[in-house]
Amino acid sequence: MSLDAQVQELLGANRETAAASEVIRSLGPRVRGYLRAVLRDDDDAEDAFSLFSEWTWKSIGTLRDASSLRTWAYGVAWHAARRVREDPYRRRRERLATKDASRLAKETTRSSRRRKGAQLDEIRASLDTDDQNLLVLRLDQSLEWEEIAQIVSASGTPATAAALRKRFERLKERIGTLARERGILD
After folding, report:
1. Into how many domains does the chain fold?
2. Above pLDDT 70, what percent of the chain?
3. What's the CA gap between 123 and 24, in Å, rounded?
4. pLDDT tens digits for range 91-138
5. Which of 69, 91, 113 is the last residue of a domain?
6. Exposed, middle or buried: residue 38 (CB in 10 Å: 0-12, 13-18, 19+)?
7. Is residue 130 domain-shared with residue 163, that is, in the same domain?
8. How far is CA 135 from CA 81, 106, 184, 185, in A?
9. Same domain, 150 and 81
10. Is residue 186 part of a domain?
11. pLDDT tens digit string along 23-67?
12. 53 in the same domain as 15
């Protein structure tokens, strides 16, 4: 039996607690990885995962047959990520990394492959949250465009699969340009 069917069966039997537990147990590791990739900070990702878990428990009854369980869960996770990212405290806090520490880290990196990977990570980190989310959902989580559109739209920003596909193409071009400027690509 698929996870969607199991959860729907539990919901049909008015066992919302068991349904929420199954969602968190089954999808939790992938959602946690998604949140780490989008937020790029372990503490923020854990805070967002806590919100995801809490909101899953509270809102599992709103799950509709119109979207898959996976799409619904990533929508809840994306909403949690945005909430954590927009938290006024997190906006004010200073990161411990400094230019000197970054320079030292670059000097100690020996392999070209590691440097290129770090440079790609820097490029990815320089993107806004929405672009990072798009990359993670499409590349890391391998979601279909329709699923991504549902997830993005769940946060209140209407999106279509076609518009996201076009945005993704422009994003790939921008990343390619930045990579060529840094000497990562020829």
Report:
1. 2
2. 82
3. 31
4. 555 554 555 555 545 555 444 556 666 777 788 888 888 898 898 899
5. 91
6. buried
7. yes
8. 15, 25, 19, 19
9. no
10. no
11. 999 999 999 999 999 998 899 999 999 999 999 999 998 886 667
12. yes
